[in-house]
Specification:
The complex is a heterodimer. Chain A is α+β, with helices and mostly antiparallel strands. Chain A is built from 20 helices and 13 strands. The longest helix of chain A has 25 residues, at 144-168. Classes of the chains: A alpha+beta, B mainly beta.
Chain lengths: 611, 1035
């Protein structure tokens, strides 16, 4: 018996220890990753880190988060070019409240938060390149590849800082990779701009130039020309007009860029214009199969400048799908543009009226319809049967960014591949004209300005004045993300945006289904019998500007009307407030996670008026 | 004591028989049935002992003048002087005190009277004959402090268990650890309640501590049935038939009310609806009735059990075929489970055994709840004006008609027709003329659903018990789980409306397999010294390993298959034109090493002490090397006051039968919140891309760190104190149990976004929050007989306070903000000082003087225009109390069970109405209350502030009568003639009566959802009411 006990205990002890000794059993290597410590060594690693930086810039042009359009669209929101519309006045509020400076506009705005964060993501990725392949004094940049990667990263880092500075004033300056415990604080404005200008300058000298106007690849990657264009832009914004003139002149004189002809203006924003002579830097988007059917939201982001409540679309455009922000040109912009150049290449490429939209383009099953027939075609036009109205639309639509059928990825019904312009030659010419207007012109400034105007098919200018520059830039770069920043730095914001205190907003409505009068009171529809003997109910009253009409399939007439109505927000004290609205607020997340601490001098101080 | 005696029989009894005289006899119970395995021994000399045979007989040689002692578990022991008698007919009385008998605890058993922790034990009888086929669901309402939610009534959806509240902010770490016969399992849905002997819920930290880092949310130990050591085996067959139908329903507007709502909202008039052809003037569709009909569930259980003094077996085969109440046969759950339990004593000191279950399942559903475009929500929101089918294309609304006549043009410019679904009569499935998008007929989603999942699962253990000397048992146990699963889906082009259509086919399949094993070795030693000092010790270790992997593939395209008949719908039939997707193949492994031990000491059945300890180490996919070990101690103590002299001598047992106080303290961890190398950062290799060339499709790839590392990351840790009392009064007829617990969980894992300027978008998991749960638990029971009439009433009631006690100030809005619905500014929220994921929105005051809604701002002032800063605490989503009540009556073979359960104190938001889609239907409540407690329709229909306020929130209180069951057991004297031992037939109404003021579908289903989505009722598959017939036969 005793022996058995000993055997048992020995077996038990053996069993227990057998497994227990080997803690190595707990080490399970992670799959599909590379250890941090072994990366950032070779040329290939440098290039790979740079690619990640570009990829993050691409992200700015997609949907940053739910319903956030691409960043440049959003940067237009506070300007005087567009209405941020929607199904109603509370649809896509985050954009509407910026656009109208509603009282509800505060530091807790999803779009602002998303854009702010994404710019710092770009800076982080650029810093990974610069920290790991440049070092303190360039000692790590021991190969041409590394040198070029660092220079490109430097431009993207400075560009991100510049965009942030334009909208947030004193965003933290992040010139190296921060560790997890860092508590960044507001930058000194002057120091920040010097940093931006210096980075552009340093990089410009280290970068190869674009290899001529036909070098398409040279338009989708940071080149010397891009660095100089950004440098010139920064110098203009900073007020260094003479320096700006010199920088921009180098771009102009390089001969590597030119304006496309007026007839091709509309192509600038589509695949047909990808990498063309006018592009200084644009984000290359070509959807390889890997994005899949719903992989990217570029189309949706683009659609945010489009219209979704149409029953049918011209052949060359895409059927509206999904959900987007219905943005439309502002009445102020339209009035000015039409007055200046109705019928110009530019006007036709940029905007279209409701009536022209229905009649000027081929539609599916158009057959031999005449214009009147098209207008009354029940298969096209506004689909306001589904919704009572379209908020903030005065009967005109954007065409500039409307996605084309030809932009589609061949394997996708929702991903388009047109490139996203960051800097184009027309902006360089306009910046040059401004620098000349401010620092003295030898005639080349006026000629640059007129080059832009005449290409557009618009009247040219007799003299180089700031007013002329401002006007031309407004028309040319509409919805490209510069206007609001320009208004603020020119000191024109209060004047030009005063109209936003207006309590009335245009609603585009189908008269047939609209049973409210301008004061919101119900109108009883009346029964009418028409010539054909058909009986229908209508609101037998002409209220509002008629911008189009059609008959539905039972022969009832519908009229698209624009009604200016009080959406209730103006009355609450909306509108542009000088001294506050020039800058966006630092996002609430940023302020609460890292509040300003006067004792340590760390944390983020909120912008004036937003505290 | 009994165990020791039995052991002594095996070890020594056989050699000690050379004595004076032989006695023999039979041991029977009060019902005349033989008592098997009773220990018959000479009092004071346990070396002269034997046990009774299966027929209750025994023989023993005893010294002259000795006294026989007869003991058997569950019976009152007897001593009988032998005298001159040689034959004994001994009748053992039931021992009421030991009916509670032993309770399974981790790696051992304990007498319930020795327990010092808080363990709820639910027995076979409580689980039998329920309509559910899910063991977890059967636990509902049976134990205080154990919340069971069935958050979907869809076939095959498992119930969720929460022990003592919600201790984690994450979704993955809320449920308890399940141990079935020693095997760790992911859930217990596969176990038919009929296979279960008992379920023990280890609620307090001290009881659960033996499971260390996995026990933070409680432990549920399930013991499946074992063979009885009766002379004759038993063959049994149980059949159940359930007819399910929609129970409590959400009342939405009918056609007249809907039109009135639209008119009052100023949207469209009756005339417009008629003239535009949207309404035909008579249609009034009740979509809930369209979607839900009757479902049928059959359940068969067939098995056998038996055994002898060396071994026992339990074999059971259970088949469930559940067809859900949604129309058609597209939602079902079929499951076949075989349970094989056997043990055999090979040598007197060596026993082997197995508990193994083999499961085959197949499941299909009609879609999970979705905020947009889901089938289930569709049945709530589509307007009543839309008919179910269109008889001709002319009846279709504009866009549908247009799509029907025009078709579409593909990217190459070719024209195609859309695929319109029709029913068997050739009618078209309708879509709402008022609402594109979500206003789709729910039946079309059923018609075009072809997805299903199926698989095999084997779960089991094999074990050996070695008993080298008295009181010592060494167990080596290998547990294993093998899963094989396969799911497939097929969808055709279809057109419902302009938002929901597809021009492509899509075929997908995925196959996955996993295995898990655990090897555990532990030894138990129990000894009683000087009769009064009972000492127990247990020590052991365990090693577990898990491996899972799978592959999946998909095929999409306009015409990707060689054919589309049913026998072509496989990936293999690919014609080469479609787009293919593949994935998987990467194994996922995890492993764990643990050591554990327990010491118990009890003195004179009066004082008990217990200490547990566990050390756990986890693999590098969960924790960094420096943090991988965790240590979990616990202590507990009990004082059985009723065994004290001063009680025994002064208070009659007929008044105070038993009284014990106990207290426990311990630490547990919650490891389930960690997976996938959360603490580390590496380079996501070639994960990003950009293209440096225009016009060709070559991508350049980029690599980037995947986040910020946090090597300090560790599990959530719970520290829990429990104070309890168990008492029985009036000759054990009245039982009372009271517990108070206080559980602090620290280190809640919060994914904190690094400061924006750091530029890392990936959130870093940080142990950054704490939550407290505390509450009272009461269990009260009464049982008695009046002649042949036996009745019992058992109830339990528990309260729960849940509060977040700390949240790192770095946690921004992204961490605090949980789920929301559509454009509602109301959401769930996570913030210090409030319950986990409470409802956060505008506080509704009432109707203002202008007729519009008024609210309270954050300072308590009245405002008509709240801003997002005015959002505040509106209500908790966690029930603050719950209760269960079971009544049993038994009279001459007739039995009646009435069982109900309820909970309350929580708030729910029915997520139906949307201000940006005002053409959808809504709850009748908002129509009826308009102008009374809420603004009139024209003043609220498009006011998102109103809909984001507490005005849209409802109490989630409910009481459900889960079961009313009437059964009849035929008298044995009749059935024995046809060789049937027992025959019981019953009829039952399950989930039939629901008492609630909640206007949505089902407050119980709505109560759950994901962790952050708790309280937001986005249209789940409602729980059904069931009419059930059943018969139990045993031979």
């Amino acid at each position: 018996m005793k022996k058995i006990y000993i055997i048992f205990i020995a077996i038990a002890a053996a069993l227990v220890t057998l497994v227990s000794c080997n803690q190595k059993l707990l080490d399970i290597p992670q799959k599909g990753v590379v250890a941090y410590e072994t990366f950032y060594q070779t040329d290939e690693d440098a290039f790979s880190a740079l690619v990640s930086t570009y990829a993050n810039v691409v992200k700015l042009y997609g949907k940053l988060n739910s319903n956030t359009p691409s960043y440049n669209v959003f940067f237009n929101a506070p300007g005087d070019e567009l209405y941020w519309g929607g199904s109603n006045k509370d649809d896509h509020v985050a954009g509407q409240e910026i656009n109208e400076f509603r009282v509800t506009f505060n530091d807790n705005n999803g779009h602002i938060t998303a854009v702010y964060k994404t710019f710092y993501e770009i800076i982080y990725k650029a810093n990974l390149v610069i920290d790991n392949f440049y070092g303190e004094n360039g000692e790590l940049a021991d190969s041409p590849t590394k040198k070029q990667c660092v220079a490109e990263a430097r431009v993207l880092r400075a560009w991100a800082h510049m965009e942030l500075a334009n909208h947030f004033g004193t965003p933290p300056l992040v010139d190296h990779v921060l560790d997890g415990n860092a508590k960044p604080t507001n930058s000194d404005k002057e120091e920040l701009w010097q940093f931006i200008i210096n980075d552009f300058k340093t990089a410009a000298e280290a970068l190869p130039a674009r290899a001529g106007k036909n070098d398409k690849d040279g338009a989708v990657r940071i080149t010397q020309g891009a660095a100089l264009a950004f440098l010139g832009k920064a110098q203009v914004i900073h007020g260094d007009y003479a320096d700006a003139k010199a920088s921009l002149k180098r771009v102009i004189d390089s001969g590597n860029y030119d304006l496309v002809p007026g007839t091709k203006m509309a192509d600038l924003f589509h695949m047909a214009g990808d990498g063309c002579e006018e592009k200084i830097f644009e984000i290359n988007v070509e959807d390889a199969d890997k994005y899949g059917k719903n992989g990217r939201w570029d189309y949706q982001a683009n659609q945010s400048l489009f219209f979704r409540q149409l029953k049918a679309f011209p052949d060359f455009t895409l059927q509206s799908v999904g959900w987007g922000n219905n943005m439309a040109p502002s009445e102020k912009f339209l009035t000015a543009l039409l007055k200046n150049e109705k019928g110009s290449y530019r006007q036709k490429a940029w905007v279209v009226s409701y009536e022209d939209l229905l009649t000027e383009y081929p539609y599916p099953k158009d057959g031999s319809m005449g214009k009147d027939e098209k207008l009354l075609d029940g298969n096209r036009g506004l689909d306001l049967q589904k919704r009572p109205d379209l908020y903030a639309n005065c009967g005109w639509f954007f065409m500039k960014f409307v996605p084309r059928r030809s932009d589609l990825n061949a394997n996708s019904s929702s991903c388009t591949q047109e490139n996203k312009i960051v800097m184009r030659y027309a902006e360089v010419l306009l910046l040059y004209a401004e620098a000349c207007a401010m620092a003295g012109d030898d005639g080349s400034g006026l000629s640059a300005l007129n080059k832009v105007a005449s290409r557009a098919g618009a009247p040219t200018y007799a003299s180089l004045s700031m007013d002329n520059v401002k006007k031309e830039k407004w028309f040319e770069l509409a919805w490209e993300g510069t206007r609001f920043v320009d208004l603020v730095r020119w000191g024109d914001a209060a004047k030009e945006l005063a109209y936003k205190s207006n309590t009335k907003t245009p609603y585009l409505r189908d008269d047939f289904y609209t049973n409210k009068d301008g004061s919101g009171n119900l109108i009883t529809p009346v029964q009418v019998t028409d010539d054909m003997g058909l009986t229908y109910w209508t609101l037998n009253e002409d209220r509002g500007k008629v911008v189009g009409s059609y008959t539905d399939k039972t022969g009832r007439p519908h009229k698209a009307i624009v009604l200016w109505e009080d959406d209730g927000y103006g009355a609450k004290g909306g509108g542009f407030k000088p001294g506050k609205h020039e800058l966006y607020p630092f996002p609430l997340d940023v302020i609460t996670a890292n509040p300003w601490n006067p004792e340590t001098g760390t944390g983020i101080k909120q912008n004036p008026g937003w505290e | 004591m009994g165990i020791i005696a039995i052991l002594s029989v095996f070890l020594g009894g056989l050699t000690a028989q050379a004595q004076n005289r032989a006695v023999k006899g039979t041991v029977l119970d009060t019902g005349g049935q033989p008592v098997i395995g009773a220990v018959v021994m000479v009092a004071g000399n346990d070396r002269i002992a034997t046990i009774t045979a299966p027929d209750g007989t025994f023989t023993l040689n005893v010294p002259a003048g000795s006294t026989l002692s007869v003991e058997s578990l569950g019976y009152v022991s007897q001593t009988i002087p032998v005298g001159n008698q040689t034959e004994f007919n001994i009748i053992l009385e039931d021992d009421v005190e030991s009916i509670e008998e032993t309770v399974v605890v981790g790696y051992g058993v304990q007498r319930k009277s020795d327990l010092t922790g808080s363990v709820a034990s639910v027995r076979e009888a409580e689980l039998a004959n329920r309509s559910t086929s899910d063991a977890a669901a059967a636990l509902q309402g049976k134990a205080a402090g154990v919340q069971v939610y069935t958050n979907s009534g869809a076939p095959g959806e498992k119930a969720h268990i929460r022990v003592r509240g919600i201790s984690s902010n994450s979704g993955s770490g809320l449920g308890p650890l399940f141990i079935v016969d020693g095997l760790k399992v992911d859930d217990i849905q596969y176990l038919d309640p009929s296979m279960i002997e008992s379920m023990e819920v280890l609620k307090d930290a001290a009881s659960a501590a033996i499971y260390g880092a996995q026990a933070g949310n409680g432990v549920i130990l399930v013991t499946t049935k074992n063979g009885s050591k009766s002379k004759d085996g038993t063959i049994f067959y149980n059949y159940k038939l359930s007819v399910t139908s929609l129970g409590h329903r959400a009342e939405v507007l009918n056609a007249e009310e809907f039109i009135d709502f639209q008119q009052q909202a100023g949207q469209r008039t009756r005339e417009q609806l008629l003239s535009s052809g949207i309404w035909d003037g008579k249609t009034d569709t009740s979509w809930a009735d369209v979607l839900y009909g009757k479902g049928i569930t059959h359940s068969h259980t067939f098995g056998a059990q038996g055994g002898n003094d060396r071994g026992s077996y339990f074999l059971s085969l259970n088949y469930v075929d559940e067809n859900g109440m949604a129309q058609g046969d597209k939602d079902y759950y079929k499951r076949l489970t075989a349970q094989i339990n056997a043990d055999y004593k090979v040598k007197s000191w060596f026993t082997v055994g197995t508990n193994t279950s083999i499961e085959r399942y197949e499941k299909a559903d009609i879609g999970s709840p979705q905020e947009y475009g889901g089938t289930l929500l569709g049945a709530l929101i589509i307007d009543p004006l839309t008919p179910v089918y269109f008889n001709s294309p002319d009846e279709m609304p504009f866009n549908m008609n247009k799509a029907y006549t025009d078709g579409y043009t593909d990217q190459s410019g070719n024209h195609h027709d859309y695929n319109f679904y029709t029913n068997e009569k050739g009618q078209w499935y309708s879509t709402s003329g008022l609402l594109e998008g979500d206003g789709m007929n729910p039946l079309i989603n059923i018609a075009r659903a072809y997805g299903k999942s199926e698989g095999w699962r084997v779960r089991g253990t094999v074990f050996a018990n070695i008993t080298p000397f008295k009181g010592f048992v060494f167990t080596s146990r290998l547990g294993y789980r093998i899963n094989q699963s396969y799911s497939s889906d097929y969808s055709e082009p279809y057109y419902v409306n302009s938002k929901h259509h597809s021009e492509t086919y899509s075929i997908s399949a995925s196959s996955s397999q996993s295995y898990y094993y655990q090897w555990e070795n532990f030894a138990n030693y129990n000894v009683t010294l000087a009769k009064k000092h009972a000492i127990g010790a247990m020590a052991g270790m365990s090693y577990t390993f898990n491996d899972s992997r799978g592959v999946n593939a998909s095929l999409d395209g306009e015409d990707p298959l060689k054919g589309y008949a049913e026998n072509f719908r496989y990936l293999t039939q690919d014609n080469g034109s479609g787009k293919k997707g593949i994935g998987g193949g990467q194994p996922s492994n995890s492993t764990q090493i643990s050591y554990f031990g327990r010491l118990t000491y009890s003195y004179d059945n009066r004082y008990s002490l217990q200490a547990n300890f566990r050390a756990d180490a986890f693999d590098s996919s969960k924790l960094s090397t420096k943090n991988r070990w965790g240590y979990f101690p616990s202590v507990s103590a009990g004082w059985t006051v009723s065994n004290e002299r001063f009680i025994k001598d002064n208070v009659s047992r007929d008044i105070l039968s038993f009284l014990k106080f106990r207290a426990s303290w311990g630490i547990n961890g919650n490891i389930s919140v960690l997976s996938g190398y959360p603490y580390s950062t590496s380079i996501s290799y070639n994960d990003k891309n950009y293209q440096f060339h225009v016009g060709n499709n070559t991508l350049d790839y980029g690599s980037v760190p995947d986040g910020l590392a946090n090597p300090n990351l560790t599990w959530e840790t719970s520290v829990q104190t429990d104070i309890g009392m168990d008492a029985r009064f009036l000759n054990n007829r009245l039982t009372l149990g009271v517990d108070w617990f206080n559980k602090n969980t620290e280190g809640l894992i919060v994914r904190i976004a690094p400061l924006a300027e750091i530029g890392v978008s990936a959130q870093t998991p940080v142990n950054a929050g704490s939550v407290n749960n505390n509450g009272w638990e009461f269990e009260l029971g009464w049982q008695d007989n009046i002649g042949d009439f036996h009745y019992s009433l058992n109830g339990n009631f528990s309260t729960l306070n849940n509060k977040v006690t700390y949240l790192d100030p770095l946690a921004g809005e992204g961490v605090k903000s949980g789920s929301h619905f559509a454009n509602y500014k109301l959401s769930t929220w996570f913030e210090e000082g409030y319950p986990l994921w409470f409802l956060y929105g505008y506080k509704y005051k009432g109707i203002g003087s202008d007729g519009f809604a008024e609210f309270y701002d954050k300072e308590g002032n009245v405002t008509a225009t709240p801003t997002t800063d005015d959002r505040q605490f509106l209500g908790s989503t966690i029930p603050s109390y719950q209760y269960g009540l079971t009544l049993r009556l038994d009279w001459k073979g007739v039995d009646l069970t009435v069982f109900g359960t309820g909970s309350g104190g929580n708030w729910l938001v029915p997520c139906i109405y949307r201000t940006e889609h005002i053409q959808i239907n809504t709850l009748r409540y908002f129509y009826q209350e308009a102008g009374k407690s809420i603004p009139s329709i024209d003043k609220m229909y498009d006011k998102i502030d109103f809909w984001s306020s507490s005005a849209t929130m409802f109490k989630g209180d409910y009481f459900k009568i889960k079961q009313i069951q009437l059964g009849y057991t035929l008298p044995r004297k009749w059935t024995q003639k046809i060789l049937i031992k027992d025959l019981r037939a019953y009829v039952s109404l399950d989930d039939w009566f629901v008492f609630t003021k909640y206007p949505g579908f089902d407050p119980e289903a709505a109560t759950t959802g994901s962790s952050t989505g708790r309280g937001l009722d986005k249209g789940t598959y409602p729980n059904a009411k069931k009419l059930m017939f059943g018969v139990n036969i045993s031979f």
